[in-house]
């Protein structure tokens, strides 16, 4: 069991394992720290870098150098490794390795033994909360409260926000974005458009390929954006009781991933267009910390389930009920009696996520967050600086560097970029 | 949402069998082989094509004083059809396709995102929603990817359609004699369908010679009978079959450029500085910045604004009579400023002419004191000549008969 910010302390493992983990964690945090500055800035523009940008990149090189010879060598050795090999080198406990392997491949079409899968763990550790690397929280009131907080702070700044206003089209005149057209045909003229919508949707549906160059459209169409994770929502009569988990620990994050091999085996079918028969999952019970989410005594459960490939061979219409049954059977094993408490169940497959959130492929990061779609290759090479081939149109969502997760980083970088372009 | 991400399966007929034969025979091969005395062949887009047939010099004069038949079947041909065909081609190519009326042809070019020319070619508007694009290079993947979001069907028809260029002062007379009634109504860049046996032949008044001439397109299975029909009609009008060398002389006189000879196409260039924007190879006139978005528009307009076009293509007249093929161009005999890509002694213009690519500002604002360095091989020794070159307008020759209406009969 992890305690504190991403396993600052480890419980339930041998003393030797605790020491080994402490060392590995320190090493991973150190290496993630080198990558971190890359994430908070816009990706290096290899074509034309300003002095400030070049020196910032230089500082990253310097921090690499400062690691010392041994550490630097190890950093470079490990950078594109698979997470399972790294864990096998340094740890013994299958349960711990299973958890770390799961976190590394969360949301991606990778198994723990796929090359570069360690990057996912670094990515997680570059996030921080109040200075604690890797720390994550669920805000009181649920994730929706983040949006509400942004809305209220924007309103305070005099911003007029409109929700439930679905954009159907971005108007282009003479290569410049001049306005948007809503679903109800209302037109809103704009001087500047910043889109947090999936890049494929933004360009192929809202702007339209006719207003773009063929090479760019080709790149956008080639974004690897097929999701491999499903989301489960359960409304329960009463909170579930997971075996071997203390009552107060139900408030944390519960991960079902018994070993790295188990995660790998769960991944195998996904390679061939089939869902996992023994899925791995991350479960939270947000209503335990925030009772306002469920009426008295009831409970909501939210889980991310892997693997659920977007292009399911049998199709999701046929596959979804079967996959839900597999998940519920699995949950029953870990929390006996949970099935009888379900009042309502909702499973969102990548196909559902695609339809509901206009994300082609249903990938919640708006595209795989892997080495080939990071930094200056996100969302596509040549256009990683938040600006786009269309004047007056910028991107600021998960499809842009540094990518998904609720970090606000793409938005922050985009805002800086837009302000810099103005001055 | 799905349909614009998928390439429609019916629009993918590649010319896929070309690699099976070392050099593919053209549909006219039996007739051409029978006439080939020099056995001088070259590879044109995978086809066995004649460089010369009996004497390239005399073949050239057949173009200028009689009529010449040149097989253009190896030319890469695409059919573009559908309600959005015009819009799609407008997005791909530089000129405004809306201005191209059915029954007309125009010379155009197309670019990649960076505004670098991928190829030039002729676009035939066969009907309101029906086009044929003819060019040097193969572009099917590019065209299909460019069709994303358009209701259009694109098919390669290189192997299905045979083509002949009939060029020269008696070319109209040959067609009339062959019984193509109404062909006299065709003005330059007009096209029309004519009956041939149980099918049709599309005849357009176009060519690559700067002379009076026509191009004929027909289904492969009607190819030989069309050849025979023309051959018979041409018997008393000096009709001769010709190879590429003769055509090349004529096209240089006409000031026309050839992809991957006078400029490197963006798809072929390996070195970053070899690609060219339209304005750098004399095709700037095609760019219609007013017509709406097209591939490379943003890049071309930006390069024009920032004046970052580094090259210019010019016609040169060179003193003396030694062709300056691939000669280096100098300013003040010292500074290297460009290269001649094509050159001949022009029998029609009676001038030593060349097409050259120069680095700006030479050829642009600095046009005086240009020289070419010619190495003439004379009995195993190079004679090095430094000859004065003058920039002159293209075409190098203008023949009234090319556009005369009605065309001259013989």
Automatic annotation (TrEMBL), chain B:
Q: Which UniProt keywords apply?
A: Transferase
Aminomethyltransferase C-terminal domain: from which residue to which, for each copy? 313-397
UniProt KW Transferase keyword: yes
One Pfam family from the record: GCV_T_C
Q: Where is the GCVT N-terminal domain?
A: 47-289
| Residues bound to substrate | 215
Q: Does the keyword Methyltransferase apply?
A: no
- Which InterPro entries does the annotation name? GcvT/YgfZ/DmdA, GcvT/YgfZ_C, GcvT_C, GCVT_N, TrmE/GcvT-like
What molecular function terms (GO) are annotated for this protein? transferase activity
Superkingdom per UniProt = Bacteria
The record, for PANTHER family, names:
AMINOMETHYLTRANSFERASE, AMINOMETHYLTRANSFERASE, MITOCHONDRIAL
Q: Please give the name of this protein.
A: Aminomethyl transferase family protein
What is the scientific name of the source organism? Allomesorhizobium camelthorni
Q: Highest lineage ranks of the organism?
A: Bacteria, Pseudomonadati, Pseudomonadota, Alphaproteobacteria, Hyphomicrobiales
